[in-house]
Amino acid sequence: MIRDLTSETCIELLRTTCIGRLAYIAHDVPYAIPITYYYYQPNNSIISYSLEGHKIISMRNKNTVSLQVDDIETVNRWKSVLVHGEFEELTGSNAKKLLNEFSKGVKEIINSKEEKKVQFIHEFSRKLGVKDASPIVYQIKILEITGKERLG
């Protein structure tokens, strides 16, 4: 049986997971790529970062994006959440603050699931280790959340 998830269950999945697939449009072609993210409850948004590249340039040009997050136990038992939102690049002290929230939040999620201690953000993403490159911090302002689950 497949059924709709409540808003609360959708948020719970976003809150307890840190890997999803970001979908965006570049040159009228859809792309979907895995990202590390953090659900930031105070402003109901998705926080992430990246180096300058195809994804960032594309989202600057067309800011409508989606994020899909799944919890798959078996082919007959899963949950899936789809977020529709708008990309917004962050700068200055706000970007620094939210990158710190991202780092702390993702570490907590990984620590709770993997029984190992993550000490630094570069242990789960190499992007910050690139010399002479600053991360671009962004948020996805959530406009809509939907979800489905299959129960056996």
Automatic annotation (TrEMBL):
Q: Which Pfam families match?
A: Pyridox_ox_2
Indicate what this protein is called per its UniProt record. Answer: Pyridoxamine 5'-phosphate oxidase family protein
Q: Which domain of life is it from?
A: Bacteria
Annotated organism of origin:
Maribacter arenosus
